[in-house]
Amino acid sequence: xxxxxxxxxxxxxxxxxxxxxxxxxxxxxxxxxxxxxxxxxxxxxxxxxxxxxxxxxxxxxxxxx
Length: 65
Hints:
This protein has three helices and two strands; from the N terminus they run αββαα. It has 65 residues and is of the alpha+beta class. It has one domain (12-61).
């Protein structure tokens, strides 16, 4: 499996949990959502506002945690 430059999270639930923690402890940081990676097949955080509308968000994934 190829590696990419972002921190990988193995499941969407773990990525969402990390996103919620970052947003509560460090509100100035820019992460707004998570997305699956087609390169490494893991999940990553994203700070891209436009992309966040089309990707999984912490709110949408709260049911998985």
